[in-house]
Amino acid sequence: xxxxxVTADVYESCFYILNGCxxxxxxxxxxxxxxxxxxxxxxxxxxxxxxxxxxxKASVNLFEFRRTYSQVCSWIQQAKKQLKHxxxxxxxxxxxxx
Length: 98
Description:
- By secondary structure, the protein is α+β, with helices and mostly antiparallel strands.
- The chain has one domain.
- Helix content is about 50%, strand content about 30%.
- The chain is built from three helices and three strands, in the order βαββαα.
- The protein has helices at about 10-20, 45-55, 60-90; strands spanning about 1-5, 20-30, 35-45.
- The N and C termini lie far apart (about 60 Å).
- The model has no long low-confidence stretch (mean pLDDT about 90).
């Protein structure tokens, strides 16, 4: 059975990726004038993997984790940049002829 999980935790996200889960979307969300990101994952037995992560029994290859961490941070920064640009487009006054 394939379920989905949404998280804002970069370490948790890396754990899911390294354990074969699929990143569905990285979504920027405006919160009190800042932009936070949520990552949605799907995968077989993802709820069991979540329980393993939160129980402190998670184990990963550190070298692979470092690479994945950098990639996840890059995706988050990209999502924040896109949302910031979108919000600026929505709030900037429309240009017109003078």
